């Protein structure tokens, strides 16, 4: 079946699903394959659960005229998403980066939705499956789409750009994330700038942080841009007022008080403001969007439990974000500060060095007490009475004494699930 014909059937469906456990009536089910499952085997169940059509790529699972047989289900999903994106002619903003992608995406959406009908990536569905699903969730009512793109290897952003065909783009930063896949920090920069490569090659528009020397250098000859800066008057000026703990800033003499903690979130807010300005959202509306946004899903949340205050930033971690979070935490005007850190994943051969660097940082910043959890942190060389190390979370839990009237930073990679600390409080 040609993509144009499939698209007509898609328009007759309510939405797209890849999981029979989440089937909605009249949806189009795509039978994807994984390491431990074959979606084709669930085609009949999808129809029983209310799917209008099922897209499969193995002939033996054909059931009736509601079954659409294609050569490759995943490739078809991706091609359908691109076709739909062009059918709608919607404006697409793509963003990637090592840290802050999801928060920045949410802030951009909060800002632009003050004036436009927007659709943004749900959660972190930012890979070769999530990006197509985001595009297919857009409708004729959508005016601006905000698509988050994640990657842990070279050429992934390039591929996602081919699917999405963005009109605008923004890179949050270049940090020490997914070093195992990218090979080095230079690999990270090369991989993330695949977004800029696509946009410049197609004469599209780029938003950027003019205080980031890497971005400034990459874009120094490209003019189709809009930059923001805290210090350079050649770009849209935004001033950081404070981050103790919440980020407060000033743009055009308008004060904006966010619900985000940490100076490291300043540029995330700046990106949303400058993108809103480019799309002619009034500054007073931008202020409303920023100030009404509250982080969730374990990202820079402040949670009060009994008489303890927890900064929960346990959604993910890498050396760059860990450094920023700990440094910001050490600058807070609080007493009795405790840090609980979990291992950072996907660092490959750099894992030992980067975990040792974080342990050394804790000593340099004179954190009152730190608990390091995970096999990598357990092997760090730093020895101090202010640092306790545990190989597993259970080891930590069994020896952790509930603090009294303390401020805690909890941060680690997703696989560590450090939000479990809340149960111990």
Automatic annotation (TrEMBL):
InterPro entries: Mur-like_cat_sf, Mur_ligase_C, Mur_ligase_C_dom_sf, Mur_ligase_cen, Mur_ligase_N, MurCDEF_CellWall_CoF430Synth, MurE/MurF_N, UDP-N-AcMur_synth. Residues 15-80 form the Mur ligase N-terminal catalytic domain. It is found in: Cytoplasm. It comes from the Bacteria. The keyword Transport does not apply. Its EC number is 6.3.2.10. Residues 96-274 form the Mur ligase central domain. ATP binds at residues 97-103. Belongs to the MurCDEF family. MurF subfamily. This is UDP-N-acetylmuramoyl-tripeptide--D-alanyl-D-alanine ligase. The lineage of its organism: Bacteria, Pseudomonadati, Bacteroidota, Flavobacteriia, Flavobacteriales.
């Amino acid at each position: 079946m040609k993509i144009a014909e499939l698209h007509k059937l898609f328009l007759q469906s309510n939405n797209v699903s890849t999981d029979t456990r989440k089937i909605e009536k009249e949806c189009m089910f795509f039978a994807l394959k994984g390491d431990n499952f074959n979606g084709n085997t669930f085609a009949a169940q999808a129809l029983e659960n209310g799917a209008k059509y099922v897209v499969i790529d193995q002939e033996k699972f054909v059931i009736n005229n509601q079954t659409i047989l294609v050569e490759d289900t995943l490739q078809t999903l991706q091609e359908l998403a691109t076709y739909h994106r062009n059918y709608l002619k919607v404006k697409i903003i793509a963003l990637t980066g090592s840290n802050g992608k999801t928060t920045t995406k949410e802030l951009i959406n909060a800002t632009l939705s003050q004036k436009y009908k927007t659709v943004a990536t749900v959660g972190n569905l930012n890979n070769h499956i999530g990006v197509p699903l985001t595009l297919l969730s857009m409708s004729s009512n959508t005016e601006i789409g905000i698509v988050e793109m994640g990657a842990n290897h070279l050429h992934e952003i390039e591929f996602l750009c081919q699917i999405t065909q963005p009109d605008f783009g923004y890179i949050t930063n270049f940090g020490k994330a997914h070093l195992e896949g990218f090979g080095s920090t230079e690999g990270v920069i090369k991989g993330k700038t695949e977004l800029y490569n696509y946009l410049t090659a197609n004469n599209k528009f780029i938003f950027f942080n003019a205080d980031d020397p890497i971005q400034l250098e990459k874009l120094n000859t490209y003019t189709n841009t809009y930059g923001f800066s805290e210090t350079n008057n050649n770009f849209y000026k935004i001033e950081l007022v404070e981050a103790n703990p919440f980020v407060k800033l000033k743009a055009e003499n308008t004060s904006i008080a966010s619900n985000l903690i940490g100076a490291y979130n300043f540029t995330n807010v700046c990106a949303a403001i400058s993108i809103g300005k480019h799309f002619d959202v009034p500054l007073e509306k931008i202020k409303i969007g920023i100030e009404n946004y509250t982080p969730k899903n374990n990202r820079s949340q402040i949670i009060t439990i009994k008489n303890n205050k927890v900064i929960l930033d346990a959604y993910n971690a890498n050396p760059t974000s860990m450094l920023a979070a700990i440094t910001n935490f050490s600058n807070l005007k609080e007493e009795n500060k405790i840090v609980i850190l979990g291992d950072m994943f996907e660092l490959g051969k750099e894992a030992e060095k980067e975990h040792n660097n974080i342990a050394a940082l804790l000593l340099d910043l004179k954190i009152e007490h730190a608990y390091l959890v995970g096999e990598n942190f357990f092997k760090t060389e730093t020895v101090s009475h202010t640092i306790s190390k545990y190989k597993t979370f259970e080891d930590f839990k069994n020896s952790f004494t509930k603090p009294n009237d303390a401020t805690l930073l909890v941060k680690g990679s997703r696989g560590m699930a450090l939000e479990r600390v809340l149960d111990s409080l």
